[in-house]
Each structure stands twice: as C-alpha cells, then as structure tokens.
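tokens incoming
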C-alpha cells in the first residue's frame, strides 16, 4: 500500500506539469521544467526559516486568540497558507525563473508558474500524507493522497496559471506593469485563502465552486495563451521590465496589508 500511496501523492502533480510543458508550442527545456518543479518543492525551506525567525510571534498571536474560531481560521487560511505560500512561489518566480535563458515569451510564465505551484503541491501532499499515515494508518493516508491528487493540485495549478498570466503581462506588455505585479500575487492569495477558509468552515459547496473556478482559470488561461502563440512565427519576445527589488517587495507589502486587513475586518 505504501507504493500506491506514493504514486497517488507524487504522479498527478508531475504528470500535469509535464503535460502542460509538452503542450507548449515552443516547449521549454526539460532541465528548466525540472528546475521549476524542484524550486516549487523546495519552498518548504524558506517556509520553515520564516517560522524559525517569526514563529514565536505568530504562535503567540495564534494561541492568544485560540478561542476565536473565525480569527484562527482566517489566520491559518489567508496568512499561514495563502500569503506565505503564494508569496514564496512569487519570489521564486521573480528571483530564479526570470533568470532562465528560456524565459523569453509570455507562455513561459504560465508554464513555469504552474510547474512551481505543482512542485509545491507535491511537497505539501507528501507532507500531509505522511502525517496522516503515522497518525491514522495507511488506509487514511491513501484517501488523503487520492483527495489531494485532484483537489490540491487543481487549486495550486489554478493559482499558478493566474500568477503566470499576470506576470507574463507584466514582463511582456508595456502598460500598468506594477499593478500587474501586485495582482499576480493578490489574485492567487485571494483564491487560495478563500479555498482554505471554505474547508476550515466546512462549506463544501463553496469549496467545489472554487475548485471549478480554478479549473476554469486553467482552461481559459491556457486557451488564450495558445491562441496568442499561434500568431507567432518565432519564440523570442523582448521583456519590457526586469526584476526590480523595490517593486517586488513593495508588491509583497501591499498584499501583506491586504491579508492583515481581511483577517481583522472579518474576524
């Protein structure tokens, strides 16, 4: 059963990433795709480092408000999950993927955005499945792996594709670049946080609606990008901006204020 659990935990994210990469009209190098998935997987390292430095404050905030169920659900959904995870994906993309020589057209941002997100989803699925395996046994772990194979991967892929679309517009179009950088983090945070919050408060219908929305974003975004690609005769396009540290961290700060506002306004 362990092999079956591992297959359900690992294969879906990898196969979706490979399928999307191979459907690109100008396919990315295998090494670049593997690097993007690996970078997404390794996001757990800075995630853990964050809690080493700020965990004492975070957990004191958590336990001081433990009796307020709504506050805890909002804190876990919009900060611990959505803000931290999507911000780390965002920074990985901006500080690593944009340095790839193969990152030279709008579709690339979508492909790499999905690969980073599914690399993270793979790590997250393995982590949760491992916890369930030791706490509740192999049968429960298999159910967890199967559930996350479609639910978690769909949500993360949806967030990845919308981040990729907005970042592709920021890098390859000349108007409103900073706003697009902000939105490239804002929209995935809103989607991811809402998804996690719907699970926390057991609103199953809303959870499924959000997953359908993610699936719709994947199909719509991919179709639009492919239509644009078909009009091209060559792959390379000039990027109109490069990574700017001030703009990057200011966009993260704006989204941090947004998340804090949500938590305190709706608690």
């Amino acid at each position: 059963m362990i092999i079956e659990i591992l297959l359900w935990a690992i294969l879906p994210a990898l196969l979706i990433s490979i399928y999307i990469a191979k459907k690109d009209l100008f396919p990315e190098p295998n090494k670049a795709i593997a690097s993007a998935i690996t970078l997404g997987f390794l996001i757990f390292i800075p995630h853990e480092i964050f809690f080493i430095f700020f965990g004492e404050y975070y957990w004191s905030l958590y336990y001081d408000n433990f009796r307020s169920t709504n506050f805890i659900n909002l804190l876990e959904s919009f900060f611990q999950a959505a803000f931290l995870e999507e911000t780390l994906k965002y920074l990985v993309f901006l500080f690593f993927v944009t340095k790839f020589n193969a990152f030279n057209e709008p579709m690339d941002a979508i492909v790499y955005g999905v690969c980073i997100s599914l690399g993270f989803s793979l790590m997250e699925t393995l982590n949760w499945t491992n916890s369930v395996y030791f706490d509740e046994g192999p049968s429960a772990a298999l159910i967890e792996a199967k559930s996350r194979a479609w639910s978690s991967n769909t949500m993360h892929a949806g967030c990845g594709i919308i981040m990729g679309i907005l970042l592709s517009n920021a890098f390859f179009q000349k108007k409103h670049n900073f706003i697009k950088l902000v939105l490239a983090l804002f929209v995935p945070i809103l989607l991811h946080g809402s998804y996690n919050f719907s699970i926390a408060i057991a609103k199953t219908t809303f959870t499924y609606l959000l997953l359908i929305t993610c699936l719709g974003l994947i199909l719509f975004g991919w179709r639009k990008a492919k239509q644009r690609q078909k009009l091209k005769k060559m792959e390379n396009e000039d990027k109109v901006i490069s990574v700017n540290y001030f703009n990057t961290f200011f966009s993260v700060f704006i989204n941090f204020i947004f998340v804090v506002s949500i938590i305190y306004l709706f608690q």
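note: The CA atoms of residues 149 and 171 lie 32 Å apart.
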